[in-house]
Amino acid sequence: EQQKITKEIAVFDISNFIKETEEFPFHNYPLNQIGGIHLNVVEFMTDVHPIRNVKEAEAYIDRLNLFDDSFKATLETLNAQKKAGIFPPKFVFDHVIRQLEELLNFKENENPLRSVFLRKIEDLNLDSEVSSDLISKLDNAIENSVTPGFKLLYDFVNETRKKANQYHGVWSLPNGDEFYALRLKVYTTTDYSAEDIHNIGLSEVERITKRMQQIAFDLGYGDQVKVGQLMNSLNEDSNFLYSDTPDRKERVVADYNSIVEETWNISELYFHNMPKSKVEVRAVPEYSEQNQAGGYYMSPALDGSRPGVFYANLYDIKQTPTYSMRTLAFHEAIPGHHLQVALNLENENLSLYRRFGYGTSAFSEGWALYSEILALEAGLAEDPYDELGVLQSELFRAVRLVVDTGMHYKRWTREEAMAYMKDITGMSDTEVRVEIER
């Protein structure tokens, strides 16, 4: 039975991949402000690559020496995309240029590729001669591979920025409507049209808004309050915000870890199995926090050497009102992404393809959204403001159905989509901008 399921998944996955590769080879953007290669390689080296001995330290340096070659290969794709007349919107160029400038201009002791390496080899207690030799090789790799590689990308985007797409939706790309229909199929695993999804979003917005209005009424805000305005006012309320002190990020991360620990203990009462791998909370790295989502998850190493990580974006104080923290922790960690992903990785009854190869938002994000409601039902968000936070998160997902189809199918501008999301959800300006630009 499992083989039949695996075959069905593989046929769906591979057939869609082939169609996209053959018909839309240049419709995705290798350089973007969320998951561009310039960010992914740094995150892999600093957060994933192990350095537990000299051999792994040398492998780290070897990979840094491949940055230049890797970026040259990316440049070939970018030039082919340029020849096809496909360019990202201007805001993508602007964010990527700023990120590359930061990556190129780190002071030596601030470069995460260097500082993480130094911290990890210090833990190895190496002889000073061995340590000095490794650091010398590291600095040479940064100077002769990493920096020239980033400079290649920087020069390309700087020169190409003037050709940026003046529109924001994929409808403006060659055969953009067909490409969008395929992406909807891949992400939803359905044959729903863009119009269908847009209408589902509108219906869900109405349903969730009514429930939030009822809670607001019970809290004494009256029966005429607009949900978006209420949530926006809560974002400005100092009762729900951390004070902007030098240790703010450390305090928020500590509170998030406490929420995750509490939720883990309660979840053991609801699930027969819990992951062997633990999960921890970290702040989004500063080099990417201005354009990163409010939170995201990185899966653990299968051998247990690296935990799962819930990255919380702490760039803007108003992105972290206390009433929204529990639901984000539920979504990204337990019982959300970490429970589902880690158990899947640890399930030896599944094929390697099912454990490592295939994933779809329809399931992973569907589970994470369900987990927010499950946590609410388990009594983990009994404060009515916390429940508003859970519902705002659900409302945000419904709004994304509307704005995604709005931009890519109904030809809304970025500004129209931002205005709609802000009006309906009351999310902070930073959150709205980042989410629309994703």
TrEMBL record:
Cross-referenced Pfam families: DUF885
UniProt-listed InterPro entries: DUF885
PANTHER family named among the record's database cross-references: DUF885 DOMAIN-CONTAINING PROTEIN (PTHR33361:SF2), GLR0591 PROTEIN (PTHR33361)
Name the record gives this protein: DUF885 domain-containing protein
The species this protein was found in: marine metagenome
